[in-house]
């Protein structure tokens, strides 16, 4: 692509103008949590500003909310221990009690709050919902605009370690030609974004909202990246094929062919014609079908999950019980909680406090149930072949729910510009292996720059 593909000056003028105006007026919104994160909207409305304007946001949690959190954790009424010696009945009691002990005594939310406030945070109303996003521009002139979307049970906290390497590549031994302008939004109903008050906010509407958001920031052309639900949003956006979208990179690819999906649905053994990579993926998907109880509940009865709003430990155990390619709870999260490698699969760069930063964000914003509704709003198989023609890059991490074969990826993404099977990393790749993840994003989207 020519240098003119990513026009810089309108966006830069708008970004600098918004920031300068906010500083001059002293109007950075303070997000004061009450029972929910609705205060985002209230704080922004009180300034009298245009809700569709891009408004700076500053995060502040009252100490009373943190005190209440610790009190609730210590008041937990625990069930009896599981009657098995593994995690086949769910999150083991020892695991959640270890996390709760640290959460109520040693954990410090202020550290991640400071990290978030060190970044440019904004909110803008799209289709009646306030959308929060982090927007970090690169100093390099021809940087590629990129919207990166998190998944469940994640948040923008998953992406904190990849921001500077992607925005400022020369500081990490990479080329200026690999620089990105990053926009990292919170999904509707998640984190600091508003909670939809009507039905219809699934992947399709979110994908369209992201296009509005990027255009509002002055980006005439951009790429999209995502894992988990973020990968679904990127796939849907590619299916919609807006003219502003130049390509996608996903680390949660949707590649399963219809015949394979049908065989999995009825529980058939793997077809004999499968290659070794395809057989591995089939076996992983077969195992995954037994680890999707959380998705079934969220996809059918999310409003039943009142415990997520009432008990921090209930919320934590629900969010932890997410599978990867190695087991359930996800191996990286389990190892992070215990601070040592469990079952042979390390946490990578994920720490126990990283895990608690994410869970605490869900608690403080009371978004356990509103986030779950995103599954209720999704009406298709997340793993079924994406069937898109927009240029696409796929990184198939070994610890993902399933490691998508190149053969399936080529069928699902008709203009596959990059495919790689990194040597390590799993479902939470940006958290677990941020350096490797950054290399994958750079390599995967590099063909779009030429």
TrEMBL record:
Pfam family, one: EHN
GO biological process, one term: epoxide metabolic process
Stretches of the chain forming a coiled coil according to its record: none
UniProt keyword list: Aromatic hydrocarbons catabolism, Hydrolase, Signal
Domain of life where this protein originates: Bacteria
Family of this protein: Belongs to the peptidase S33 family.
Name of the protein this chain belongs to: Epoxide hydrolase N-terminal domain-containing protein
Originating organism: Paraburkholderia sediminicola
């Amino acid at each position: 692509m020519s240098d003119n593909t990513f026009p810089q000056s309108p966006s830069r003028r708008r970004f600098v103008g918004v920031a300068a105006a906010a500083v001059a007026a002293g109007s950075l919104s303070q997000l004061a949590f009450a029972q929910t994160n609705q205060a985002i909207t209230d704080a922004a409305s009180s300034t009298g500003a245009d809700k569709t304007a891009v408004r700076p946001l500053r995060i502040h949690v009252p100490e009373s909310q943190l005190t209440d959190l610790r009190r609730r954790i210590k008041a937990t009424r625990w069930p009896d221990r599981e009657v098995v010696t593994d995690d086949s009945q769910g999150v083991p009691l020892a695991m959640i009690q270890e996390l709760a002990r640290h959460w109520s005594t040693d954990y410090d939310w202020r550290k991640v709050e400071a990290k978030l406030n060190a970044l440019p945070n904004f909110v803008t109303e799209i289709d009646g919902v306030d959308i929060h996003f982090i927007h970090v521009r690169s100093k390099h002139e021809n940087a590629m605009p990129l919207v990166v979307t998190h998944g469940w049970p994640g948040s923008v906290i998953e992406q904190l370690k990849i921001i500077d390497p992607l925005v400022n590549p020369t500081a990490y031994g990479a080329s200026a030609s690999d620089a990105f302008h990053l926009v990292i939004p919170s999904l509707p109903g998640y984190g600091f974004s508003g909670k939809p008050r009507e039905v219809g906010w699934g992947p399709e509407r979110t994908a369209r909202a992201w296009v509005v958001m990027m255009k509002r920031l002055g980006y005439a052309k951009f790429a999209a990246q995502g894992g988990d639900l973020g990968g679904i949003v990127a796939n849907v956006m590619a299916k919609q094929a807006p003219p502003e979208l130049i390509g996608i990179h996903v680390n949660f690819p949707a590649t399963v062919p219809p015949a394979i999906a049908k065989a999995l649905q009825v529980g058939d053994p793997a077809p004999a014609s499968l290659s070794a990579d395809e057989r591995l993926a089939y076996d992983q998907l077969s195992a995954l079908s037994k680890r999707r109880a959380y998705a079934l509940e969220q996809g059918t009865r999310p409003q039943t999950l009142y415990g997520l709003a009432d008990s921090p430990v209930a919320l934590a155990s629900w969010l932890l019980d997410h599978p990867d390619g190695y087991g359930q709870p996800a191996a990286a999260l389990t190892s992070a909680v215990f601070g040592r490698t469990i079952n042979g699969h390390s946490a990578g760069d994920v720490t126990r406090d990283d895990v608690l930063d994410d869970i605490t964000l869900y608690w403080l914003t009371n978004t356990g149930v509103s986030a779950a509704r995103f599954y209720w709003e999704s009406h298709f198989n997340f793993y079924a072949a994406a069937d898109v023609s927009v240029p696409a890059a796929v990184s198939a991490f070994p610890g993902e729910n399933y490691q998508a074969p190149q053969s399936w990826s080529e069928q699902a993404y008709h203009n596959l510009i990059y495919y790689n099977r990194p040597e390590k990393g799993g479902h939470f790749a940006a958290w677990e292996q941020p350096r490797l993840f950054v290399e994958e994003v750079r390599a995967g989207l590099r063909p779009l720059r030429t």
